């Protein structure tokens, strides 16, 4: 087993662990966002009830409640944007994992001696190469989407 093969295998395991850790962090953050959504929803319901039920309240109090409600809506919108970004990151991680698997398969065909390759091997190699290009294009689309969203926010 040549050194370069061990190095490639080690790097593949390391990148897989990084993706796994990143996926776990994203999942935790999505769960935190879900909890925060529920809390904001409850606070919003209370403020709406106060605004509807307390018609005799001073105008200052109603203005304060309205401002709090608007702040909650803004916070919820920010969380929705973050959640959307995280979902794109999840898709990107899946595509990255797919790309690594396809890279590994393609490398096994490329490393095979040309004289030992069967027509089926060559066909499989071309198919894997095509799939790899598709995955790279999908990742590119996701990156462009994120960039467009960032620019539109600015």
TrEMBL record:
One protein family per Pfam: bMERB_dom
Segments traversing the membrane: none
Keywords: Coiled coil, Membrane, Monooxygenase, Oxidoreductase
Domain of life: Eukaryota
Domain BMERB stretches: 13-154
Database matches in PROSITE patterns: BMERB
InterPro entries: bMERB_dom, F-actin_Monoox_Mical
Stretches assigned to coiled coil: 23-50
Subcellular location: Membrane
Single annotated GO MF: monooxygenase activity
The protein, known as: MICA1 monooxygenase
Species, as recorded: Elachura formosa (spotted wren-babbler)
Annotated gene: Mical1
């Amino acid at each position: 087993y040549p050194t370069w093969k061990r190095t490639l295998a080690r790097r593949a395991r390391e990148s897989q662990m990084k993706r796994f850790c990143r996926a776990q962090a994203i999942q935790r953050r999505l769960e935190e966002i879900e909890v925060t959504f529920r809390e904001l929803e409850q606070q919003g319901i209370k403020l709406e009830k106060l605004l509807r039920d307390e018609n005799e309240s001073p105008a200052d109090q109603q203005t304060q409640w309205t401002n709090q409600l608007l702040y909650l809506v803004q916070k919820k919108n920010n969380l929705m944007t973050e959640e959307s970004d995280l979902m794109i990151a999840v898709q990107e991680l899946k595509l990255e994992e797919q790309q690594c698997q396809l890279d590994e398969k393609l490398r096994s065909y490329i490393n095979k001696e040309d004289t030992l390759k069967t027509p089926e091997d060559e066909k499989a190699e071309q198919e894997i190469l095509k799939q790899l290009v598709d995955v790279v294009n999908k990742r590119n689309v996701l990156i462009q989407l994120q960039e467009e969203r960032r620019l539109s926010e600015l």
